Amino acid sequence: MIECFLLFIFLFILSMVLVLVSFLLSEKTFESREKSSPYECGFDPILSARSSFSLRFFLLGVLFVVFDVELSLLMPVVLSISVGFSYVGLISCFIFLLVLFLGIFHEWREGSLNWVI
């Protein structure tokens, strides 16, 4: 019983020391003008808020997110088919891919994937 209490005290003191060390090491310094500006990437904070945003860039970003989510949804289907083969899983996988290919074909025909016009 006493060993458990000593272990608890040791872990508590160790965690407090680690919190104190991380607090001291993470102190932020605002010595440079770039670090204290709201746009650390180098944009001028006054003019960049008023500039127009490319809608094609936004649309391509949305397409990237859609196809990124598609991969995360498709991976369990592929793994379930490889573990135990079933025709229902295979057909649902093909229907899922067909819908995605129809969507990307529509975006390509619409011209949303073209950067330069």
From TrEMBL:
One of its GO terms (cellular component) is NADH dehydrogenase complex. The chain crosses the membrane at residues 6-25, 57-79, 85-105. It is an enzyme of class 7 (translocase). It catalyses: a ubiquinone + NADH + 5 H(+)(in) = a ubiquinol + NAD(+) + 4 H(+)(out). It comes from Perna viridis. Signal peptide: none annotated. It is found in: Membrane; Mitochondrion membrane. Core subunit of the mitochondrial membrane respiratory chain NADH dehydrogenase (Complex I) which catalyzes electron transfer from NADH through the respiratory chain, using ubiquinone as an electron acceptor. Essential for the catalytic activity of complex I. Keywords: Electron transport, Membrane, Mitochondrion, NAD, Respiratory chain, Translocase, Transmembrane, Transmembrane helix, Transport, Ubiquinone. It is a multi-pass membrane protein. Belongs to the complex I subunit 3 family. Its EC number is 7.1.1.2. This is NADH-ubiquinone oxidoreductase chain 3. One of its GO terms (molecular function) is NADH dehydrogenase (ubiquinone) activity.
